[in-house]
Design goal:
- The protein contains twelve helices and 22 strands.
- It has 457 residues and is of the alpha/beta class.
- It is globular and about 60 Å long.
- The structure holds iron/sulfur cluster.
- The site of iron/sulfur cluster (SF4) has 10 residues, from helix 5.
């Protein structure tokens, strides 16, 4: 007898990816088979994204395709919080919001009853993951206590709910045990971790530890793998983790969505930490940890943004010298309170300002990356580029998917072929850089010399 098979489509951000992993893990635990295509699937689950209008459209299209190709569709994820799904696709069997493994499973049990003999032993201890086996996202909390005027995430995901530190650390340890070399800490507001629990004490391997951002960073820093912090806000207590980065316990990397450089715009955005002295704080961080890579995102053309305010944003970028930067033209997401602000910026001007930000930033990013040239650094190998004959890796300053790469070339003076060890760290010499990526030469050592089954010459 074959097991019931669930097709799965996962859209959206790393937080949504973690939700998908949980559902997939539960499905396998209960003995369902999983298919990445519609054919052969008895039912399809679509995990949607509702962040910006393009993502909404992509999600609606994916649901439409699943209905057409398969017919039995359950929708979950951010878009599920909105009536849009049922209105556009009334044939879907069930709709849930994000972070709803139990509800999704209930809907699956109703429409595709679970098998009698679950093969629980088929599920590895660390669950089912959609990322390559050497890195994993670690979701530490769900929801957000802020109400940024351009964002509808709190209305979809609710207020901050942190996972107790013992539970997070158990998951982190299981991932490391399963071979993960890099943990990417994600949430909506990483620096607020534990606030909702009043930093309650929990137990990590029998020791009492507070559910707090710094304590979590310290514990993760002891696991002996790369730990990368995403979605951090520049609150004063963030300064404390810079010491851990300088000690090599955490990657010297902070992903902080600043969004703008003008105090009035930040106030209209209702940004957390709008009043913080961000530039002084950045300078101080770099003093503590000179290798720090700062990643950030900005919004150009926010409602009411004057030319002078926009200029302040460009000046802020010149001062801040951010390493990795993304910029969105303001997108009036349905339901966001910012849409009611006066003096909206016309779309053409929003796009023009977005381009100006990127053009302004390009030489800054290029200059920042150049500081690695001439240094020997540790990188994590992600893939092999067969055509070019190089390895594709990432250094401390490169988060997967969003940042740049380190291309590793064989050492022309070495008699050893370059070994391919996907998902492993290696030492490289950085020899060149551009705006996004670094070029490196593999460092031959006695440890890496033995013949490998797979090599690049
Ligand atoms: S901090 Fe602001 S932008 Fe981020 S999730 Fe919360 S409300 Fe949205």
């Amino acid at each position: 007898m074959t097991n019931p098979t669930v097709g799965f489509i996962s859209l959206g951000c790393p937080k949504a990816l973690v939700d998908s992993e949980r559902i997939l893990t539960q499905l396998r635990a209960e003995g369902y088979d999983i298919s990445s295509s519609f054919e052969g699937a008895d039912l399809v689950v679509v995990n949607t994204c509702g962040f910006i209008d393009e993502a909404v459209q992509e999600s609606l299209d994916a649901i439409g395709e699943a209905l057409e190709e398969n017919g039995k569709v359950i929708v979950t994820g951010c878009l599920g919080k909105r009536d849009l799904v049922k209105e556009t696709h009334p044939r879907v069997l069930a709709v849930t919001g994000p972070h709803a493994t139990a509800e999704v499973m209930q809907a699956i049990h109703t429409h595709l009853p679970r098998p009698h003999d679950p093969f629980t032993d088929l599920v590895p201890e660390q669950g089912i993951r959609l990322t390559p086996s050497h890195y994993a996202y670690l979701k530490i909390s769900e929801g957000c206590n802020h109400r940024c005027s351009f964002c509808i995430i709190p209305s979809m995901r609710g207020d901050l709910v942190s996972r107790p530190i013992g539970e997070v650390m158990r998951e982190a340890e299981a991932l490391v045990k399963a071979g993960v070399k890099e943990l990417l800490v994600v949430s909506q507001d990483t620096s607020a971790y534990g606030v909702d629990l009043r930093h309650r004490t929990d137990f990590v391997n029998g020791r009492p530890v507070k559910t707090h951002f710094f304590e979590l960073a310290k514990e993760l820093g002891e696991l002996g793998v790369w730990v990368r912090l995403h979605y951090v806000y520049p609150y004063p207590h963030v300064d404390e983790v810079l010491g851990l980065m300088a000690e090599g316990k955490l990657l010297p990397y902070l992903d902080i969505p600043f969004q703008h450089g003008h105090p009035e715009v930040l106030k209209r955005m209702k940004r957390p930490a709008a009043a913080e002295k961000v530039l002084a704080r950045i300078q101080n961080w770099r003093k503590i940890c000179p290798d720090l890579t700062l990643r950030s995102t900005f919004i150009a053309g926010f409602p009411g943004e004057t030319e002078a305010e926009f200029q302040t944003l460009l000046d802020f970028l010149t001062e801040a010298q951010i390493d990795r930067l993304g910029c969105f033209a303001y997108s009036p997401v349905e339901g966001a309170t910012a849409n009611q602000l006066s003096n909206p910026v016309p779309e053409a001007l929003r796009l023009e300002r977005q381009e100006r930000v990127m053009a302004h930033q390009a030489p800054i990013s290029q200059a920042r990356l150049r500081r690695w040239v001439g240094r020997r650094i540790r990188v994590l190998i992600d893939a092999i580029d067969e055509e070019e004959g190089c390895l594709l890796a990432r250094g401390p300053g490169d988060a997967p998917e969003i940042d740049g790469l380190v291309r590793i070339w064989p050492d022309p003076n070495s008699r050893h072929a370059m070994p391919v060890r996907l998902g492993e760290w290696t030492e490289v010499d950085i020899v060149d850089s551009d705006e996004y990526d670094l070029e490196a030469v593999w460092v031959a050592s006695e440890a890496s010399a033995p013949a490998e089954t797979s090599t690049v010459n």
